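Let us work through a complete example step by step.
Step 1: write down the sequence.
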Amino acid sequence: MPDLPLTSGELVGMRHTINTYLSGTAILYTVGWATNSAGGQVDTATAAGTYSARLAPMSGDEMTVAERQSAVNLMVLTLPAYTTVTESGRITYNSRSYEVERVLTRTPEEISRRVVVTEVR
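Step 2: predict the structure and record it as tokens.
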């Protein structure tokens, strides 16, 4: 049986329902590079926008950091549909900083934007 497409009214209703549950605030940053006084480069973050959002735990994982095994807590940040997020970006959510690991695959009928993040410590 073929999939039936959603109507624009159904999509608007679904997006409204999702947005109702975005109870936190996220500030999205784009990251660029600038030359420092020693001739090297430093990253600079520029605020790109403030959005309603929700952060939830995804899973725990381990990875090698500075030649040691470290626990990494992956989180999923849910944002309104069609929010522009780059995989090199940073996010502040409720005064805590996160780095974007990946932006989850979108569909043509996107009802929310989901981003996998890790906390910057």
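Step 3: interpret the result. Residues 8-20 form the longest helix (13 residues).
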